[in-house]
Design brief:
alpha+beta; Alpha-Beta Plaits
Length: about 100
């Protein structure tokens, strides 16, 4: 089992390219700085909304990552492109 972070957010249309350009650096920063980071998928939804699906080895890894916030430049750039948080949830992958 792994911990799954589900974050749905809005991005203004004029910031979409900025978000996508920052994505690779955000993932690199997570790989370098976040223990237990297993990978991430970004899904474009209707109405300028996005879903970020991030897999963590344990709930403790996810909690530690949340405490760090946007502590590295790639992560900060990605977060800065987000206009509004819709919902953030945590679950467990059974498969």
């Amino acid at each position: 089992m792994t911990t799954v972070e589900l974050t749905r957010f809005r991005v203004l249309p004029e910031k979409t390219e900025e978000l996508l350009a920052a994505r690779a650096d955000m993932v690199k920063d997570f790989e370098a700085d976040r223990a237990g980071f297993l990978g991430a998928r970004l899904v474009r939804l209707p109405d300028n909304e996005w879903l970020d699906i991030v897999d963590w080895a344990t709930p403790e890894n996810f909690a530690a990552s949340r405490e760090k916030g946007a502590n590295l430049p790639g992560i900060a750039r990605f977060f800065a492109a987000i206009d509004a948080l819709v919902i953030a949830e945590e679950g467990v992958s059974e498969a």
